[in-house]
Amino acid sequence: MTVQMSSDTETAPTSASNDDGGVTIQLDGKTAQVPLRDGETILEAARRAGMTPPFSCEAGNCGTCMAKLTSGTATMRVNDALDDDEVEEGYVLTCQGTPDGPVVVDYDC
Ligand code: FES
Predict the structure, then answer these.
(1) pLDDT, tens only, 85-95
(2) Ligand 1 center–CA 65 separation, angstroms
(3) Are the beta carbons of 75 and 98 closer than 8 angstroms?
């Protein structure tokens, strides 16, 4: 592997300090963070973080897994539980929502 250094570059595209851009989960007053994984739902990320988020159907029907995105966006595969107003307010079905990028998810809202 070759590493190239350029003296012309004023701002390097590296961002080691920006590695905190994963999935941040707030649940029962605790906060955990895990790196993003392609295709992983927020619910799966929360479990991987060692948390015990609420869920039931895991099919997008019941709304038990609902949480609020306080930062970032996610795409829901199925949404048969939330109405448009709730989605606009940032609520997401975490069993169906895959982060589009770094997100902060609050189950306590
Ligand atoms: S667990 Fe039922 S909608 Fe997510």
Answers:
(1) 999 999 999 99
(2) 5
(3) yes
Q: Which atom of ligand 1 is nearest to the CA of 94?
A: 4
Pick one of 3.40.50.720, 2.40.30.20, 3.40.50.150, 3.10.20.30 as the CATH number of 4-106.
3.10.20.30
Q: How far is the CA of 51 from the centre of ligand 1 (A)?
A: 16
pTM equals: 0.82
Atom of ligand 1 nearest to the CA of 95: 4
Per-state percent for the chain, helix, strand, coil, to nearest 5 = 15, 25, 60
